[in-house]
Design a protein that fits this description.
Produces ATP from ADP in the presence of a proton gradient across the membrane. The gamma chain is believed to be important in regulating ATPase activity and the flow of protons through the CF(0) complex. Pfam families: ATP-synt. This protein is of the alpha/beta class. The chain has one domain: ATP synthase, F1 complex, gamma subunit (Pyruvate Kinase, Chain: A, domain 1). The protein has five helices and five strands. The protein has a five-stranded mixed β-sheet, with helices on both faces. Helix 1 runs antiparallel to helix 5 and helix 4 packs across helix 5. The longest helix has 73 residues.
């Protein structure tokens, strides 16, 4: 018979686990909401850059480049930690699939990098995700530098970014093309030429770099929010399971305690019998 004291110890352990799970869930929810608050200014800035780019393109009379049919380079916004259910596996699966088709991978997220390493996939670059939404611009800046360096050395290979969309049901993965740059997305904002201090080609080049930076900021922030949303969901399920286990253990404790009391009564009755 299991001693009630042993069951009580298990109940105490379960309650400690429940406290940890509750804390992880609360933290994930807070980070998810904070990331969403940062998306609005990022998208507002992205819109401003897009408008400026549309005007500069009209002034420079630059035509859209021809599409390039080869795997190219994919920036994968993955996960930094575990405890996010199957979310991390979905991203690793997608990245693995692209790698096996010949794409080179830039990985944001140590957990995703480790998962790919276990599969024998070797990304060309791996870094950790931002630990806080305020860190996203600095990370996007570093990522942009690496990306343009690789782009220069690869002779203009296609570049896309793969990330999860936390604002859609089931957080589907989105692949967004960065290069070749789709100039058709930036219609001219006005007909007269803007007053600038830079040559038209140089101005367009600078604005493209700025637009790519904002696109990376948005994707990394969305990935940050998606990871924390997945973790909040996983921790919510864990909370339910832990509470069920605690309830079952409490019932087991009551039965064991009753059996112990019955045994003690029987022993006392036997001992006192003539």
């Amino acid at each position: 018979m299991t001693r009630p004291e042993d069951i009580r110890d298990r109940i105490d352990n379960i309650r400690e686990i429940e406290s940890i799970v509750s804390t992880l869930r609360a933290l994930a929810v807070a980070r998810q909401h904070e990331a969403r608050d940062h998306l609005a200014p990022i998208r507002a800035y992205e819109t401003s850059v897009a408008q400026a780019l549309g005007t500069a393109l009209a002034a420079a009379r630059i035509t859209a480049p021809e599409p390039i049919d080869r795997p190219g380079l994919i920036v994968v916004v993955g996960v930094a930690q575990g405890f996010s259910g199957a979310f991390g596996d979905r991203i690793a699966d997608a990245a693995d699939d692209h790698a096996r088709r010949g794409a080179d991978l830039l990985i944001v997220g140590g957990r995703t990098g480790s998962a790919l390493d276990e599969r024998g996939v070797k990304p060309v670059w791996v870094t950790e995700t931002a630990s806080h939404p305020h860190d996203v611009p600095a990370l996007a800046s570093r990522l942009s530098d690496v990306l343009f360096d690789r782009l220069t050395r690869s002779g203009g290979a296609p570049v896309s970014i793969l990330f999860a969309d936390p604002e859609a049901l089931d957080q589907p993965l989105t692949r967004r093309l960065l290069f070749p740059f789709d100039f058709s997305r930036f219609p001219a904002q006005r007909r007269e030429a803007p007053l600038t201090t830079l040559a038209a080609g140089e101005l367009v080049s600078e604005l493209i770099e700025e637009y790519v930076f904002t696109a990376l900021c948005e994707a990394v922030m969305l990935g940050f929010a998606a990871e924390n949303a997945a973790r909040a969901t996983a921790m919510s399920r864990a909370q339910t399971n832990v509470k069920r286990i605690a309830t079952d253990l409490q019932a087991t404790f009551q039965r064991a305690r009753q059996e112990q009391m019955t045994t003690e009564i029987i022993e006392l009755s036997t001992a006192s019998a003539p």
